[in-house]
Amino acid sequence: MQIVDLDLLEKFNRLKGAAGTHSPSIATLRSELPELEIKVDACFLSNPYATELFLKYFNEELLSTNEINKVLEFYPSQNKEISKSVAKHLDIDPDQIFIGNGATEIIQAILHNFVKGKVVVNIPTFSPYYEFVTDDSEVVYYSLKKEDNYRLNSKHYVEFVKKTKPQAIVIINPNNPDGGYISNADLLFILNELKDVPNIILDESFIHFAFEDSSMHLPSVVREVSNLQNVYIIKSMSKDFGIAGIRCGYAIMPKDKVAHLLKNGFLWNSSGLAEYFFRLYTREDFLKEYEIVRKKYITESLFFITELGQIPKIKVYPTKANFVLVEILNGVSSQDITVSLLLNYGIYVRNCSDKIGLQGEFIRIASRNKDENEYIVRSFKDLFI
Amino acid sequence: MQIVDLDLLEKFNRLKGAAGTHSPSIATLRSELPELEIKVDACFLSNPYATELFLKYFNEELLSTNEINKVLEFYPSQNKEISKSVAKHLDIDPDQIFIGNGATEIIQAILHNFVKGKVVVNIPTFSPYYEFVTDDSEVVYYSLKKEDNYRLNSKHYVEFVKKTKPQAIVIINPNNPDGGYISNADLLFILNELKDVPNIILDESFIHFAFEDSSMHLPSVVREVSNLQNVYIIKSMSKDFGIAGIRCGYAIMPKDKVAHLLKNGFLWNSSGLAEYFFRLYTREDFLKEYEIVRKKYITESLFFITELGQIPKIKVYPTKANFVLVEILNGVSSQDITVSLLLNYGIYVRNCSDKIGLQGEFIRIASRNKDENEYIVRSFKDLFI
Lengths: 385, 385
What we know:
Two copies of one chain form a homodimer. Chain A is an alpha/beta fold.
């Protein structure tokens, strides 16, 4: 394993430091390190076929008609107006829908407005869930166990939460960064057992990549839990619809919570393009095509992850998301593997050394398109065999 | 004055009710009332020549290169990264810059995080300044006087604030909805007298349309006050740069305030297009062209407002913004004038009947492009002469 360019390495490490617990974005890397050739951005948890699909509609409906000019020039509709589209799609009362400028805005809004006191966060996790809490909150970590492959043990978790008596709990399903999936049955068991927890934040941002059987039916529990008065379901659109640059997300929550948030803020927090996307999201023609690329991507990701699992000196953790947690077993640090992949192969993966709750050397690898996935597998074979 | 279509009138009134204190957006009107032909959106406070300029760059640099695909697909840079562009343009420490998803997000962030207790708001005003305050705040209204043409009397205002001892004050310059301008000298006098007010929110969202003399030099006080520890300068990009659909704004504030906001939120609150715009905002080629369209628009607006001022039965209030407050003096309500302009002439103006602090029947009219402004003048002559 040879580091090709120490100068580049030094610059990369500096950028990584500046980005805190998140990876420097590809835009930052491209502008600050133009000499670096990035062939595959495998940090990026997004369905590339969904991006292609969105771009097809974007080209046909906004670019070739010049509608894009209006989308950029004029004020978009307000939060309550856009929520109607999403409500129609989900068949849920629009007063229960809160539209966000990406899911991170929604995480922030919930944690800042409704969560005071103890909040149970399962680790490893997506860091905003503990970074965004206010000074009035105390994060209590629930450690997912390495011997369970970081999968949540529902009964043990329920006991822990009942004993801890928190004001809020956070469940990401499938979980980030390990992709661990909680079945519908287990999740409904948890929600039923924890009716006394005032705030249950359920993040389904990766649910479009999960499945319970080969029908690949979307396993979201939105319909089952939307009437519960203590549950918030958070949904990023960036990953499953491949449009991270647009910043779209929404949450389903009790009406009084939506009303509280809209009472003194969040008026014009969607861009014109976000509004266009949300209108697409309720259209049958788009959704029919989306369903095809969702299943195609799940299938290809399954093949990719299975191939990675054959490679020696690494352990591939079970996942039902569009990424995989990989433990490095050959004694090399995750940082050195990350840098080597980037500088020698042009593959950008997520070094998980800053993820609390992981024991060992871990990287996270996103499934990309078929060619890119094959290139990742070839490069890993080159590196580890 | 004839109402052409009662059915349309009823539908319009319903939409207006649903949008609260803001006008229904043009997008909402277009989608909910497709039978209505809107010829001029004179609600919309935006430089149309700046939109054209932005679209020229957007076409050349994002569309014809296909860079747009990356802008939509990938995560934009984080707040701190984007603030560097703005800091470079303003020649201010990047740690003093907070990037917002439109100015309304920044108003919300400041009011929710730093303002508790009394806040003095001058009325008439932009409603989020009193709507977005939290339950810990008490809004104290300072009434701009009709006999002063709603212009701020600096000495009287300073006395009022000193007596009131608020925790925060809000000054919009030029003010919305009347366009009243506070000169640099008066503003620096106010800031100097009110050093003991913990939070001074200075909204310069319309400053690019203001001028002190025929050189039309930008009269922003950013450079003079950026070192003050009690001042926040808020800047929308929607109006002066004609890109309301992108949602871009920023604020200049003391470093510890920016650090507080970024400590637990506002991580990825800019879209890819917002990031592209902020990069443009620091480029000399773009800014040179922008300066030309800024001055062209100011000049045309001056002619437009002067023409309107000649029309009988209305009073045109003095303004240094890109809009004008107009009082209806012929006994007809502002609501009837608004509806008549919309349904008979296709001109959408802002009915100010919901604006607190105005005494009489008022509408607000935006300056648009030359042809549209001429059409507005012709229609007004038709309506009032």
